[in-house]
Amino acid sequence: MADPKGFMTTPRQEWARRPVEERVRDWDEVYVPGALLPIIGKQADRCMDCGVPFCHEACPLGNLIPEWNDLVAREDWRAASDRLHATNNFPEFTGRLCPAPCEAGCVLAINQPAVTIKNVECAIADRAWEEGFVPPRPPERLSGKTVAVIGSGPTGLAAAQQLTRAGHTVAVYEKDDRIGGLMRYGIPAFKMEKRQLERRLGQMRAEGTRFRTSTAVGRDVGAAELRARYDAVVIATGATAWRELPVPGRELAGIHQAMRYLPLANRVCEGDLAVSPLSAAGRHVVIVGGGDTGADCLGTAVREGAASVTQLDIYAQPGAERDEYAEPWPTYPKIYRLSAAHEEAGQLRTAPAADADARLFAASTLRFTGDDGGRVRALELVEVDERRQPVPGSERTIPADLVLLALGFSGPDREDGLIDQLGLALDARGTIARDDGFATNAPGVFAAGDAARGQSLIVWAIAEGRAVAAAVDRYLTGTSRLPAPVSPGDRPMRV
């Protein structure tokens, strides 16, 4: 501990966001540039260097959080970068996109605001790039073994980087025209600018990882053909089969899945389109679903100039404090959180029907109604109780001429034929079945990330990518020195 009393004398201070009126006029990251470094040393000093640091257990990557907190407090940025990258391939991604279960597990969080672990992580990652602490690390020698990684989200990229550094020749196959998966076309630029992604991809190319874009395995190239061409295959395609909303009026025009809407907005930012064909400009937007994807749609619709934006969450509004009986420390609690998008919507009063931040809690969709042309014009909803049962007399109608469904994902998409062509077994949840070593029922084929685990967090995706890389390395060589932070059966801490 650089300062044994830091947690008693220094209050929690987070990275400041830019003023709402400024940031909603662009797609840049929401935080004030340069405002993190002046405060982060004192924030890192709040870490108590606990004898049993539960932040380790809360993070599936096993990040060495007290160690790099101490190094940041002492301004040893190179050593801090080394300790951070020892367990995390992409801290600049997690430092911006992860909901930080490590902070929920911080021992200080038992009775005080947690250490700003996520901000410290981001500061280390950004400083490491600025100072040149993360040069490419190509292998000293090649193994002669080849691996195909299908999918270029965080799982696929982590697996590819680990296997490349172990000496294997790795090719990453991506069905989209650019590498990155949901980080490229699902995550809005105001949460993570794509330069963060491009910088890391440049490092991976310099290390020897090869990328094949616009190639859907199962459609553009046969899955069996690919398997025959490589010594091992890793499936990291994510859980992209979205959940539907089977209510009357679903067939009306103007109702779209969130993952149809968000990629188009990202393509505008990439320069591919002048205007999104699903732009929210001038429209009354309703987002069905209260999770992170819904919040991403909210922030995007606000920037596109929607006439109004309302987000429906079927769950009741959570409290501001942890429920010590239902979700005791150090589990990740369901509490009221105000994302940047919700802060924007609240200040701009985008949802007249909502009390504060554009969200209507405990709200369930009954039906959609449309005009004579078959286009959606309104959404009828009802309040629900704790058992999700309708509350009599609580029905209401709100205007809606663009509806976005953000209801999560049920498993991997089978449309391309990858799963069927390889004859892969699925489990009861519809995700790819695998054994304790990440191996599927097809010899030499491994599965990791959301495609096998189910919808999860970016830290779990990266952890699975690192772990499956160790499993593949062992399969190819008989042994492995690569770290394996998680097993297929591991799950987040819960009661």
Automatic annotation (TrEMBL):
Biological process, per Gene Ontology: glutamate biosynthetic process
Keyword Ribonucleoprotein: no
InterPro entries, alphabetized: 4Fe4S_Fe-S-bd (IPR017896), DPD_II (IPR028261), FAD/NAD-bd_sf (IPR036188), FAD/NAD-binding_dom (IPR023753), Glut_synth_ssu1 (IPR006005), Glutamate_Synthase (IPR051394), Helical_ferredxn (IPR009051)
Keywords attached to this entry: Amino-acid biosynthesis, Glutamate biosynthesis, Iron, Iron-sulfur, Metal-binding, Oxidoreductase
Residue stretches making up the 4Fe-4S ferredoxin-type domain: 38-69
UniProt pathway: Amino-acid biosynthesis
Keyword field contains Oxidoreductase: yes
GO molecular function annotation: iron-sulfur cluster binding; metal ion binding; oxidoreductase activity, acting on the CH-NH2 group of donors, NAD or NADP as acceptor
Name of this protein: Glutamate synthase subunit beta
Organism (species): Streptomyces misionensis
